[in-house]
Amino acid sequence: MRILKPEVAKARKEKILRWVVQQYVETRRPVGSQMIAEGALKDVSSATIRNIMAELEEEGYLYQPHTSGGRIPTDKAYRYYVDYLANVQKMAAKERAQIEQQYDARVNEVDNMLVQTSRLLAMLSGAAGFVYTAQVEDQRIQRLDFIPLAPGMMLAVLVTESGAVKHWPVRSNTLINPARLRLLSRFINEEIQGRTLAEARQILWQYIHSGHRELAGVADVATQVLKDMERPQTGGDELHVEGIGRLLENTTEEDYEDLKQMMRVVEERERFSNLLNEKMADMDRSQKKLNVSIGSENELKELKNLSIVSTACRVGDRTVGMLGIIGPKHMEYTRVMALVNFIGSLLEASMNNWSALPFEDSENE
Amino acid sequence: MRILKPEVAKARKEKILRWVVQQYVETRRPVGSQMIAEGALKDVSSATIRNIMAELEEEGYLYQPHTSGGRIPTDKAYRYYVDYLANVQKMAAKERAQIEQQYDARVNEVDNMLVQTSRLLAMLSGAAGFVYTAQVEDQRIQRLDFIPLAPGMMLAVLVTESGAVKHWPVRSNTLINPARLRLLSRFINEEIQGRTLAEARQILWQYIHSGHRELAGVADVATQVLKDMERPQTGGDELHVEGIGRLLENTTEEDYEDLKQMMRVVEERERFSNLLNEKMADMDRSQKKLNVSIGSENELKELKNLSIVSTACRVGDRTVGMLGIIGPKHMEYTRVMALVNFIGSLLEASMNNWSALPFEDSENE
DNA sequence: AATTAGCACTCTAAAAAAGGGGTTGACAAA
DNA sequence: TTTGTCAACCCCTTTTTTAGAGTGCTAATT
Q: Is the alpha carbon torsion for B276, B282, B287, B292 positive or negative?
């Protein structure tokens, strides 16, 4: 009777687990002992493998959907796979360059960087891509300007440190001429540049209440702007999801119901946003960049058969957003993780590029 | 021996056709002669109805998916139904008020009116809602402003007559101070206000080439702006689709393949945009407001089992956009048509509200 | 002429039955 | 500790049955 060294036993166990995960990801069919004996571990018999698989099942890594008929990985197995078994895949330099180029082209061409990024993610991953930006509330302001449209009507334009642009119409009963508006804008910018929206609001309220001379005559407008800034939507988060259709592609009708549920959740937005927000806070706390949430690790039960691979975007010391993909639980984690990581770094670079030193403003040349 | 008056015969035929359409929309099952005899025309036998249905089939209004097993409406039948048989449904005053209120609330709260509108459409119709805006290219400009962000970097903000706001970053090698930028902005606005983007571009090119004194020192920037304005994306159309998930709701797995195809097309955007663009041009030409495209009437074969109900949005004399829903061919046309019509008028009102008289600009108070 | 009743036929959708393939657990042997 | 073997199991697929609904036709009726 031979005694197996524990390391060897463990290694073999892991090999089997890895094989099951990879095989299942590929074929989407329960994996049986025979298959493994023929494919991965040719030097042992299927019976041995059966024994080991029974152990793995007991430990909660595998389970059988039916009494007889192969086993499939549990969420725990995927987790183990992602954490220990998946060697972090480096993206081929060629592929990197290709993406980089495409990213540049798209992002420069179009105003909406975020939408484009989520599309790119979807395209390259074959799953749905998303980009989520935090509440503007918590972001630092780069500028706040007013564009006069008509007497009593103007457009407020807010640019954050990360380059996000928000705009909203402002109506006011007071007629206000463009020159006066510029002064207001200049004053405001001097005061609030680099502050968060929340801070800015407080500062402005104070000025208004104390009747600051710079605000004489435009207090009405300033009040209106503040009001608009307070609306949750103005400072709300933003979520772009693209390529949900892709999830249907590699999917048979089995998961039809799952998919339906998922779409409901994503389109409803509310809960999905909250989920992402929490995830972002977590990542901010732990200072981790890449996060993988597998199946039921997600708070939403509707996502129990899906996984989310995401990365945080930091501008300066602040996490201002998150991006990633949402795809079937049985996805090619290694590839997708590398991809998300890479595109994340591109977007981050792009955002950091925005925060440049502001310069002096003066009314005359 | 009775002789049937032709009007009576025709009326009966129509009654049957209407019944088949409505019944099929409701149950999604082929309709047989017996059913009609029991439901719609109780004073005739099923045999008679069979005869009439045979006629209708010959004329191309009905067809049998299988040799025996009831008939279902063809696209032609739906067309006839929409054109002649569906009495235009008025929306209940109560429902109108409800929508109006909700619309107001949403649209005012959030900067992005278009996204909100398409969401509202989706919610109320139970299908996917879309809003499409024409190439900015063809829209009149209300204002074009520049917000300085950093030396050599600014944000261009373009507001069109219909209230659409586009923005894009402009980089320039020349350092340019804010005050100078304001002068440029003022000059440009005086020249191009009320023109289309295409016209504006031409005008500016001329000034630049002729070395107009107002542009001295900022020609570089102006050139850069023009270049950015030329990019197809800057002036591109915009398409928002929301609620595709809803299409899956009332759908069994039968149409799974159809749905997949549809999503592919919509997410790909290119061809779907073109389709909408053509539709918009058609409606502009015919000065019709409401359009219904049934199944294969749509150019895209992927949409052969779907219908599009859309309405044009006009600002002044120009069609600037379109909105509507895209849903299963077997939808409740009457209800949806009324809905699209109504929301269309709301959006239109909202857009027209924007084009107000601009006012004089002066550098000092 | 127009409608109806009756009938044989067709076809589908759902249910039931049969077959095949792959897997498992158990146990004895190596 | 591993292996070979085997009965039992269960799913998936295909085939067969069955029930039901609809049709077209013809002859009878109004």
A: negative
Nucleotides of C under 7 A from a protein CB: 1-6, 9-13, 21-27, 30
Measured between CA atoms, how close is A250 to chain B, in angstroms?
11
pTM flag (> 0.85): yes
Tokens 């002729």 belong to B210
> What's the Cα-to-Cα distance from A312 to each of A5, A117, A129, rounded to whole Å?
42, 14, 14
- Tell me the Cα Rg of chain B: 27
For residue A250, which phi and psi values (nearest 5 degrees)?
A: -90, 35
Q: Does any strand D atom come closer than 7 Å to the Cβ of B69? A: yes
A 10 A CB-CB count for A87 gives 7
User: What's the per-residue H, E or C state across B334-358?
Assistant: HHHHHHHHHHHHHHHHHHHCCCCCC
Q: Which has the closest alpha carbon to A241: A208, A218, A275, A217?
A: A275
C-alpha–C-alpha distance, residues A175 and A157, integer Å: 19
Mutation for testing the A interface, residue in B263, B265, B355 having most A CBs under 10 Å: B263
Give pLDDT, residue A113. 79
Q: What is the mean pLDDT of each run of 10 residues along chain B (365 residues)?
A: 67 92 92 86 86 93 88 96 85 87 70 82 94 80 86 83 80 75 84 85 84 73 74 65 87 78 90 93 91 94 94 86 94 94 90 59 45
